[in-house]
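User: Please predict structures.

Assistant: First:
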Amino acid sequence: MAKKKETTVEQRLRALYDIQIIDSRIDEIRNVRGELPIEVSDLEDEVSGLQLRLEKLEHSLADIDTSISDKKNLIEEAKVLIKKYATQQENVRNNREFDSLTKEVEFQELEIELAEKHIREFKAQVVQKKSVIDKTIAHNTEREAHLKHKKSELEAILNETKKEEEALEAKVVEFKGKLEDRLVKAYERIRTNAKNGLAVVAIERGASGGSYFTIPPQVQMEIAARKKLITDEHSGRILVDAELAEEQTVKMNKMIAKL
């Protein structure tokens, strides 16, 4: 493995600030996407759930239709039996046989009444389920349209930024490869713990960028001398002077514009 070239503290500071600028630009790109990928995933799950519900409702409707058909068949069979028993009553030999056939007729009539009652209930269920199906289809159509819009929106953003993001990520790897591993790890640790992802900040009006804590003049002079790496005692961020920050910002913005 080739030994990394020795660098001065100032070169390290410039390299770290360059990496910070690139990382901040990557953050901006990802912030533009925001919650869109999660939103698209959630919508896909919702649409999938609605479609599964529709399938279950359709199956349930088919089962009810089968039940109605079964009850209608039962009614027809009962009518045939009633006709049969009525014919038999004409040829009975005694009252006991007549009464027995009468009870069979009454039983079949009750079976018909019960079957007709069930058919009415089933038909009411059909009306109710069809209403639910219509509402579910309408909701699913609306969600699918919303998903299509969000996917299109996400795709447009990805197409617009993917090339730049990949180029920037490659630059970060390239720039980090020129620094000592311990320095890169320190930068990454500070960046991970920072709310806005800033691990390297410039001095602004006597304070570290984004902070209200004033940095003593002596420390500001040491930072401007660029002889050692100095961190903010409050935030832990690596500090650079405003002039170095301005120079690197101009340089890096030109590089990013060419990507």
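Second:
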Amino acid sequence: MLLSDSMRIVDLLVIALYLLAITWFGAQFKESQSSLKDYFLGGRGAPWWAIAFSIVSAETSTLTVIGTPAISFAGNFTFLQLILGYLLGRIVVATLLLPQYFRGEMFTAYELMQRRFGPRVRRFTAGTFLLLRALAEGVRVFAVSIVISVILGTGEILSIAVIVILTLFYTFQGGMTAVIWTDVVQMILYVGGALLSFCIMLHLVTGGWTHVLQAGEAAHKFHIFDFHFAFNSAFFHQPYSFWAGLIGGCFLTTASHGTEQLLVQRLLAARSEADARRALFVSWLLVFFQFTLFLVIGVVLFVLYRQNGHAPPSVAERTYPEFIWAQLPIGVAGLVMAAILAAAMSNLSAALNALASTTVMDFLRPLLPGRAESSYLRTARWATVVWGAVLFLIGLLARHWGRILEAGLSIASVLYGALLGVFLLGVLTKRTGESAAITGMAAGFLATLLLRSYVAYTWYVLIGTTTTFTVGYAASYLWQERSLAFERQ
């Protein structure tokens, strides 16, 4: 065996040890799972700061870790404009939706829809989430194959299956408690790995940070704001303008953090509404920091590639993992690669638990009432297994869906608009009933699908939301049905 191959075994051992350790750690929470409240909400015992870390880990994935540096490597910092919208969206969620979620004990976001409209809207919104999360998570599962192919020199499906199976194992055993605490560990690892790789990269640049600043400024890499406004097709095709970031980012975050079970589940797991609000806003600070860090890494990589005269990879998302594997010291490369896989496992575990909770609480439990808690708990665990298989299969199909970070965001955005629109109908109006709400959602889906070729993905949620709300409210005058009132707890 060549010396380089022998040395590379150290990196592979570091990765293998991490995967086994985090799986063992997550499985230790099995004994605390005695009810659906434990399995899906962690018994509402996690501190707010752990939930904040878990929120960030849930909205971060391998897409973020390898896709964000690719954006600034090829472009600039205009992606950061979305983060302003992320803050505005969190304010809307905290003001409009959090108070509704903490009226009584809820397990899923879609129970709110039954209280407001009825069981059909609950099933319709829950089904929309299942479709949305399965498709978007499939793209994230595929992103793991890019990292695996860099490590092993192959795109073997078996390697991706290992990640899915290990994540499935501890999620199956430990439920939401395992998800939250492994999220904390894995976020510390992948952000720490990014900081470590940044420091090493910077050391490799001739002239250090000063040269990175100079080269980045010359290439307009640090350009953030684009205030250009023109009511034309070119403007709406631009995904990263100030207005697309502020408005589109606001609608995207209000939908994802306010209506999608993946993130609402973490808010519901908080000890109180105040803790949920605190976790929500602290998570924004963490998101802002990590996006900035990964964009800076992309600029440093740009300078390094140009300094060394190397051609970038044909797939932009391979730039960061390929550099780590080829240039970082033995052992360190394995640690940073393990950190990237940590982001994948963290997001996957969150998705599995959220998909299982919606399947059981919004579909199976209402159909099979009166069963013992232990029976529902077994069903929840096996629903987790089924969704693990589904996500793996969708990941195989996602190889042909284009740029992975934007593909993941755009898939979610197509469905987010109708979800947010019907939630706003429920919270902001009184006359809209069940049939009108479903009509509005159907119109929102259709409008987004018809217009998505004419606008950037950052506008999808706005289109779907406004169409759903407008059509749903107008339809309420046609259906003349009685609207359900919120339960007063």
